[in-house]
Amino acid sequence: MIISAGFIGIGAMGLPMTTMLAKNGVPMTVWDANPEQSAKAGQLDGVRLAENIAELVGAAEVIFTCLPNDQVVESVYLGDGGIVGALTPGRITVDCSTVSSKITQRVADAAKKQDSQHMDASMLGSIPQAESGEIGFVVGGDPAALQKIQPLLDILGRFTKHAGPAGSANRIKMIHQTLVAANAVAVAEAIALCEASDTDLDCFYDVVCNAGGFAYSRYFEKRVPRMRDGDFSPLFMLDLMTKDSKLARDLARDVGMSAPLLDQVIARFQEGQANGLGAKDFSAVARLYQSGGKA
Description:
By secondary structure, the chain is an alpha/beta fold. It has two domains: 5-165, 3-Layer(aba) Sandwich (Rossmann fold); 171-289, N-(1-d-carboxylethyl)-l-norvaline Dehydrogenase, domain 2. It has helices at 14-23, 35-42, 53-59, 70-78, 83-86, 101-113, 127-132, 143-156, 168-196, 201-210, 218-228, 238-254, 260-274; strands spanning 5-8, 28-31, 47-49, 62-65, 92-95, 117-124, 135-140, 157-164. Strands 3-2-1-4-5-6-7-8 form an eight-stranded mixed beta sheet, sandwiched between helices. It starts with a strand and ends in a 21-residue tail after the last helix.
């Protein structure tokens, strides 16, 4: 059975995800607050533009969203003219945004009153993975609803893991991002130390990637060559990593846990924002170790 889908949020991730679904024969309806973004998706075969959110919800069995933050998710789902108000029984909403579990639970409770299911489908990966259909999905929500949307997730990604009830995937993603953010700062500092001490960076890179030690990470392997070339074009913006890290800190505070390392990592990223690096790739935190540290 062909599942019709909608996509709200045709941005850096939403556009390639919409493209992947449409190329695989999924009937798509899209909407974005920015008409120019909607128009980009509207050029694809099998994709039609909705005039508003309600029209999209009426045309799609599964509604994907990929939005910037809690406030936008709340507005798009729960605001006037939002998704929840237009839901009819049996619809499934799938939010791929990195947001707090609190807003996800609020949306899930509201969707349930409409006899619909809301899933948090947190994504691991960035633009290259969206373009190649290799996103990793961590999903919270009803297991039966996950079975229904699995064929769509299989088109978009290479990995799906059910984390538990609504909001569970959000927490997994937030904690995951603490490791990514801390690694980015640690790599930046290590590379700067190599350069400052006149240590052979090619040798260091080879040792970390191939000698079998615990310093290796995919981030190190993929980002260090870009950093050496001065390429900080955004695959995942520093602003977004800062946002994700602060969500994780909020989670820690909610459960009464101190996170001193995370506090320091966030401070470093905020310094990057203050130096005009927010729209750069988050690896641009390395610029802070260079003279001036400016964008």
